Amino acid sequence: MTxxxxxxxxxxxxxxxxxSAATAASDARRASWLFSxxxxxxxxxxxxxxxxxxxxxxxxxxxxxxxxxxxxxxxxNYGDVLTSRxxxxxxxxxxxxxLLTTPLLVVLPLLFAILAARVRRNRWFxxxxxxxxxxxxxxAVCLIFxxxxxxxxxxITKAFNLLGLDAPNFLGSTGGAWFGVTLLTLWWTFGLNFxxxxxxxxxxxxxxxxxxSIDGASPWQQITRITVPLLRPTIGLVLILQILASLKxxxxxxxxxxxxxxxxxxPVIEYIYxxxxxxxxxxxxxxxxxxxxxxxxxxxxxxxLLRRAGTADTNAERRTP
Length: 321
Hints:
Elements: H1 21-57, H2 76-82, H3 85-117, H4 123-131, H5 138-148, H6 155-162, H7 174-202, H8 206-214, H9 219-230, H10 232-247, H11 251-256, H12 268-277, H13 282-319
């Protein structure tokens, strides 16, 4: 009689410690905080810290020429700011500058970016030519334009004379000053928005344009029905960035015009600067800064809410069969 023996398989277990998903996620978070630490330290020291210090100072009658924080005045500085004609006049000047520059710096870079993208050769030249002024320091730009705006001998003044036109008084009249600072800002900051649009256009696949060409679409139809609709997120980003940048204008108006003539172009930030470092009212200037900070935060929050609402509507349309 024969007996058959069946071997039982033996399970072999690894002695290496298992690596769980939780451990991997913890390591990733630790690494992210480690790499973010230098930026966070700088951010807290040079942005959050000064904001908190300014908030504290706004409740005191601090003077920038004396030691100490001064005496407690509560919300008195805020009341003075909100009832100051000069503060609201500077707010209006900032709004005028924003209305003058924002449409130009949103639309014109878009048009030139679209045109440059359709150039077949030497695209780098156009990108360099448009972006190069942006890296020039603001002081140098203002000195260049101040020379060109000089009455009788300035380059732009002579150009007007050659055309048989009377050149505006760029540095002595309110209208001429707004025209001059708008032209300076357009030339100086045009390149940043141009590069943003160019980068977004490069993300659009060439297959889309080739398919539309096969279907008989003209270049104008490709721009209006393909390029511009696909650039809507970038246009929204450029719009809010440009609004915030225009609301924070200081350099070109201060260096070129010093807020003149007669403080008719002085923006909010220059008003705060003059109050804090010329009139030495540090507490009042801090209160004005906090008020203006709230305005900028509200504008940013409105844009975020509108963007989220637009994204939600787009996702809902995609889900609809």
